[in-house]
Amino acid sequence: MSTLLTVDDLKVRFPTRNGVVEAVRGVSFTLGRERLGIVGESGSGKSQTGRAIMGLTSAHAEISAKRLDFDGIDLLNAPPKLRRDLRGNRIAMILQDPKYSLNPVMSIGSQIVETLRTHEKVGKAEARDRSLAMLEAVQIRDPARVFDLYPHEVSGGMGQRAMIAMMLIAGPELLIADEPTSALDVTVQLEVLGILDKLVAERGMGLIFVSHDLRLVSSFCDRVIVMYAGRIVEEIAASELANAKHPYTRGLLNCMPSIGSDRHPLPVLERKAEWAL
Fold this sequence. Notes:
By secondary structure, the chain is α/β, with parallel strands linked by helices. It folds into two domains: 5-90 and 173-276, Rossmann fold (3-Layer(aba) Sandwich); 98-171, no CATH class. Helices cover 35% and strands 24% of the residues. It is built from ten helices and eleven strands. It has helices spanning 46-54, 80-86, 98-101, 108-119, 124-137, 143-147, 156-168, 186-203, 214-220, 247-254; strands at residues 5-16, 19-31, 35-39, 62-64, 67-70, 73-74, 91-94, 174-178, 206-211, 223-228, 231-237. A six-stranded mixed β-sheet has the order 7-8-9-3-10-11, sandwiched between helices. Strands 1, 2, 4, 5 and 6 form a five-stranded antiparallel β-sheet that branches. Helix 4 (108-119) packs across helix 5 (124-137), helix 4 runs parallel beside helix 7 and helix 5 (124-137) packs across helix 7 (156-168).
């Protein structure tokens, strides 16, 4: 399997009045044309890792790495224009909350069309047809109606599906999905996962799937990275997640509900100081 993305010793630091916050501390992994899950609690560095790869980290952040390479392109030293050309085209990111990601003064259809026409030379009519087809592909009923709506006129789940359609419209080779199904009900969640799975299988796309849901990641992904306090504490095949060895991963697994078992008192996730060093 060819390597699409190489991340070696990635660090993301945020200088503040009270000192430096180290959000990502020496993360290393490779990604082929596969589904890689990244799990961990809020604040563990999952989203910041994805944003650093995309080049969407805040301007005041300090980013360093021994290597941050996408298909032979050095992302850390790439010119700004090249990074812009890559974003939304060859590399895309589904952000977690559509309320803050979709433009409130543009219709949903206009935003999807704009994404497509930014990266491909297509006419307005073709761009509209392809956008409608993508809205239908993410299980939006009556896509022609939703095409003309504004973000505040749709539910959170529909907004998230519209965001997914916008990120997929240009056919990216690498997709970073940050909690892409968190606002969706279970049936739609499965349909969206099916779309992502098909893209990996048929287009050879690489997928980084960021989630809190260990069960979902274990059933959907090929490999899983577990992050704690900005570091990777364990990397394991998704099918073997139930047999994870690191006590933090074991603690996360033990916190999940289990039907038919005695959960009183509820387990508490214990943390050791050395994990954060």
